[in-house]
Amino acid sequence: MVDYTLYLVASQSFLPPGVDLLTQIQYALEGGITVLQLREKEITTAAFVRLAKQVLALAKGYNVPLIINDRVDVMLAVDADGVHIGQDDMDAATVRQLIGSKKILGVSTNTVEEAQKAINNGADYIGIGAIFHTQTKALTVPPCGIAGCREIIKYCKLTQQSKIKTVAIGGINLSNIQRVKYQTAIQIPKDNIQFTLDGVAVVTAIISSADAKSDTKALKESWNRGICSRLDLNLCPRNLDTLKQRIGSIPENVLKTNPLIHHITNNVVKNFSANITLAVGASPIMSEERAEIDDLSRASGALLLNMGTLDTQRTETMLYAVKKSNENKVPIVFDPVGAGASNFRANATREFLESGIMNVIKGNEGELLTILKGKGAMKGVDSISCGTLEDKVHLVEEISLRERTVVVCTGRHDVISDGRCTVVCSNGHPVLGQVTGTGCALGSVIAACCAVEEDTFSATVAAVAWYGIAAELAAAECNGPGSFMPTFIDRLSQVQKSEVSLWMSKVDLEMIQ
Ligand SMILES: Cc1ncc(COP(=O)(O)OP(=O)(O)O)c(N)n1
Ligand SMILES: Cc1ncsc1CCOP(=O)(O)O
């Protein structure tokens, strides 16, 4: 039985300066790779055979199978353990005939149809990908992403009841390996079954590493470790009554717990967001200093990441904060402000989503459309509409299912989904749209609620309703946006102090079946 946990696709092209391939492979073997592939595109057949013989001897010493990329002739010449082929190579059925039944056959797949064909043609495993963008090769088809990968796993494991093994490939590294493992998992609650990938394949995460042995170890440990971050997909209450019961106590818990909320947010809203955080009973800290992220991550109840005034340095810091928060199981609320306004922001949004697990994604329709469809869906940082409320619900559900996280789309009606359960919250007031920063500061309240409530979906619904009700109360008392701001902060801070039943009576929620 081959163990596909950590599959290295090795190639001379991506080595660090001064390091030779055999040495790097030796480190990777010492670090614990479980499968090795030799992928050489630029060398002669004779050189490929020579190299393959050396690599095979090395791999045998660690009992690790050697797969040859693309070249059936080289694989047969050195008697390697198997061959890996892509969609543009010799067809899998012919390769199977040539190599016989005992050798390993791997096939690259990007769609369910390709997986189906690979299984029918006798593949032992499929490489699913590219799952994310990769620097290693120019992709001819777009990355299939977490959602595409899940579809393929589901097909392989469930529909076909097949013994085929699955590994994901493309852009996988230490920062996202856990996300890949857990977010591609398929749960069948009624049968208590879970299907997961059998492993991941990487090129640069190991082959370009300055310390290949320890990076290999770290990748393997991360794969085998329990889940980082919180993915509480089973906690979502199933009906409106249980949801309302659960959200009723959340504002009070924020006040009692006084969680620290680390904000990496935009310059326009820092002051307002800090005041809103204080008003709900949490403690804000605004810091973009990378040197204190480790400490803050250990101390924080939640992290708010807001892309409003993004720059290159802040992007780096945010990526590091994502990594640390996931490691420390600190929930992250991600606000992709202006995601589609420029290529820079669209790319950063993608990079954030690929780099780790975001527990909540909060955006307006334009931002969420950008997450779903890429750049081109919005103008500047202002939102555009995706159509009817039904369209908005579909948008939120689609992203939530794809990213396996809670998604909130703000607007006249706020739509919140965790992919299994969707609610529309109609609390709020149009004056919120006349005060800058009110959208961003909602992120602070969501983060405060997530810090005290494990069930991220309920925490998010509580925050959205709480915010909306405070806005309704404040708007009723004031004359315009100027006087609204202080009154809003007052009302926000008073919700916990009022009777739960009083604030709950104002909650305007509808559950979408
Ligand atoms: C494990 C694994 N999965 C996918 C690939 C990609 O193979 P292919 O589609 O043949 O592309 P090239 O590697 O030839 O560029 C792989 N090599 N390994
Ligand atoms: C060979 C291949 N096939 C699909 S993505 C990929 C390259 C993966 O490289 P990396 O792990 O460095 O992103």
Could you characterize the architecture of this molecule?
- The chain is α/β, with parallel strands linked by helices.
- The chain folds into 2 domains: 6-224, TIM Barrel, CATH 3.20.20; 243-512, UDP-N-acetylmuramoyl-L-alanine:D-glutamate ligase (3-Layer(aba) Sandwich), CATH 3.40.1190.20.
- The chain has 21 helices and 19 strands.
- It has a 9-stranded mixed beta sheet, with helices on both faces. An 8-stranded parallel barrel has the order 1-2-3-4-5-6-7-10, surrounded by 8 helices.
- β16 and β17 (414-417) form a beta hairpin.
- It is elongated, with a radius of gyration of 25 Å.
- The structure holds the ligand Cc1ncc(COP(=O)(O)OP(=O)(O)O)c(N)n1 and 4-methyl-5-hydroxyethylthiazole phosphate.
- The ligand Cc1ncc(COP(=O)(O)OP(=O)(O)O)c(N)n1 binds at residues 7, 9, 37, 39, 69-70, 84-86, 89, 106, 108, 127, 129, 137, 167, 169, 201.
- Residues 9, 129-130, 134, 136-137, 169-172, 202-205 line the site of 4-methyl-5-hydroxyethylthiazole phosphate.
- Keywords: ATP-binding, Kinase, Magnesium, Metal-binding, Nucleotide-binding, Thiamine biosynthesis, Transferase.
- Residues 6-206 form the Thiamine phosphate synthase/TenI domain.
- Condenses 4-methyl-5-(beta-hydroxyethyl)thiazole monophosphate (THZ-P) and 2-methyl-4-amino-5-hydroxymethyl pyrimidine pyrophosphate (HMP-PP) to form thiamine monophosphate (TMP).
- In the C-terminal section; belongs to the Thz kinase family. In the N-terminal section; belongs to the thiamine-phosphate synthase family.
